[in-house]
Amino acid sequence: MSLGRSMIRVGAEERVRGRTIFGYDLERPGDLHLAAVRADQAPARILAIDPGPALALPGVLRVFTAADIPGENRLGIIASTRDHEFLAQELVRQEGQAVAVVAARTLAQAQAGARAVVVRYQPLPGVFDPAQALREGAPLVHPERPGGNLLHERRILRGDAEAALRDSAVVVEATYTTSPLEHCALELEGGRAEYVDGRVVVAACTQNPHYDRQDLSRFLGVEPERVRVIQAETGGGFGGKLDLSLQPFLALAAWHLKRPVCMRYTREESFRATSKRHPLVMHFITGADEQGRLTGLQARILCDTGAFASYGLAVNMRAAVHASGPYLVPHLDVVSRAAYTNNPFTGAMRGFGVPQIALAHEGQMDALALALGRDPLDLRLQNALRNGQATGTGQVLRSGVGLARCLERLRPIYRRWQARAASGEDFREGVGLAAMFYGIGNTGVSNPSTAQLEWGADGRVTLFTGAAEIGQGSDTVLRQLAATRLGIPVEEIDLCRGDTDRTTNAGATSASRQTYISGNAVLAAADNLEMQLVQAARQMLGQHHLELELRGGRLAALDGRRLEPAQVARYLAGQGQRARGAGRFDPNFSGLDPDTGQGRPYAAYAFAAQCAWVRVDTDSGLVRVKEVAAAHDVGRAINPRGVMGQICGGVAMGLGMALMEQFRFGQTDNLHRYHIPTFLDAPRITPLIVEEAEETGPYGAKGVGEPALIPTAPAVAAAVGRAVGRPLRHLPISLERVMAALTHEEAEHAN
Amino acid sequence: MDLCLTVNGQPISLAEVPGEASLLEVLRGRLGLLGTKEGCGVGECGACTVLLDGRALNSCLTAAWQAAGRQVTTIEGLAQGGHLHPLQRAFVETGAVQCGFCTPGMILAAWDLLQRNDHPSDQEIKQALAGNLCRCTGYHDILRAVRRAARWLREGAP
Ligand code: FES
Ligand code: FES
Q1: Are residues A341 and A309 in the same domain?
Q2: B100–A13 CB contact, under 8 Å
Q3: Whole-prediction pTM value?
């Protein structure tokens, strides 16, 4: 049985041989090339676009503008907030927004053409701060929108937070801020499109092929059947490949020119044109009684969603729902708002607002521990949610609450590091701890997945899934689940993935949802396949009441007879049928009450705690993270090696968020100025798997992709705070911020 | 200009290579060797690492003419007769490959290191691979893979 055994990842061997063709690699000889013209100022009104100088250049065939879009120009994953104009129509709302696309014979010609297109703008007053954006009279980012600059507001109200805080023995209050971040998947956006028999076929890197098809058909104004999307092998996503990027340009050009076209982003363009992580401002007031029990929380959260909604609504919801952290908090008053500005649009990035909010709820736990004279680990353990308790939205968790176990796993390591943390002439060390919970899947909405399994007449089984593999390992995990349920070796399962002609919708590879949701859909498909095989076998044998079941990859009858499923498949093939089972799974959720935010937003939650040991150089402010231990309750580790890989990758990304990453348009739009962790920054990581089974999960599994990153930045912030003797509440913890904290300057400047 | 070089053991001559073309462009565009990746084009990510006369370098920063008359090894040339190189095998087995986009460059940079130093310390591995970015793995399993490959190369693979 392959479940729970560390598996070699599907596709690893092709990757080490350099044979894997990614979206970025799809160009073929003879393809036309596309390059986008991007606005160098915003907000602005477009007065005129003159393609003439570009068209006069050698090799340039066509310049597309918004006028060439046959369907709707406004796209976006969340139907109620679709507002992303892929080619600016009249207004440019953010710098870097595409205004036109040039098609030419070579890449160099397309790029020269893009530089030659002349766009005349009239500058408009803009707004670049989300608090200002919500003031009366602020310039409107989407003037036609009824709600003004407020994209979304979410409240979570429970009990009476005001009274609870008034009656608390201790109350701590602070403001926390985070910065916009770039995903920096190593593979840049790339893809190719063709026009085949009246249809457009787009192959590109993506995290959500079936959504892409929907929006591309809307964009072209055709039925979805006339668009085929194929997920190319995708070299990392982290949320950055959830929104459409260059696919609309590819589809548009292939549609009009009826020729194969390809497009790639440069690193700079990827920085400028794709979504960023929302920067948040979080004002928290948290109370506890004398025994250290949390009493109440009042939180005010503001998210800068930039010029387009993208996933802003989801981020805002998640920030609110997770504001109380993985703790029992009886009284809550949380208001989270997301505002449009003319900054680069922000959207999904690994954790959807939870990595940001964790900085606040964990900072508050440390502040309470200090005020109460309590140990940070013990205080968290005392307040940790347990099975049978209710979250801040009033959802009683029946199973799968593994936080206490995570904290207990960390305890010996945490204590050892505390004892060993040293200080010297020119350095100080500190150890910090942070915890989190994370709802699996989309927040308070239906987000089903579907899958099929087919037993071929040749004896091989094929799994059909729309779930995008982006490096996180779903190809491997879904095959393991199918193999386990069917009782066959994982090697006997072939995979057909991410082609909208051949697979059905599995939803996005986001929200750590594929193991839990698509995993359950695959198990349902296996059950359905078994039922079909059993029925067909009865027909074949002419014994309509024969008891049969699939065991060890064979159909076994009570009377001891054994039948190969392939035999049954051949029998079915003879009748023009296939042995194919279909499965669907939608998590058991309920929408949030519009006023109080009470409800059941997710069916399952992952829990985790991490601790970090840092060394601070007191002369330079340089922080080095020496070690991180990360205990993650994943329900059940289907592929333990994959889980550990996710944890280690998440920790490194969290470390970048904690110490070095901050996106500034025009200033940090390359890897030279925008620093992500290198090999030398990577700490020693101890991944620890905790398995508190989720009763609705596939064999108890939940998910780990995003949880892996969430506790890291708050744990590092706590460790640095411990080392320098005052809390760090603003990310990234730059040299300047560390020095300010060390020299006790008042100003630990917010973002 | 005409360009003669050896790629993965094969002598190659190419006509009309523009003087400003990078080795990366020639490998990918003219020779179709797509295993060499491009992650930035300006020397900041290491995805384009190849071996030139056995030394790792960023092919995006190397002019194609600099490779004239020399030996270039790309990821496609590492496996011998269908057998994975120990580094490749170690990457597969330790889980050092996630999305795999950094992998070719990472393996070739590690090959260079192990050629010069058959028993590198962790710090030496980290230093040698510091120019190769990976956004997926946190480098943890890559370190394990390089250690393991070094051991196999010293002691013979099991
Ligand atoms: S592509 Fe050469 S270093 Fe990034
Ligand atoms: S495995 Fe994805 S960048 Fe390294």
Answers
A1: yes
A2: no
A3: 0.97
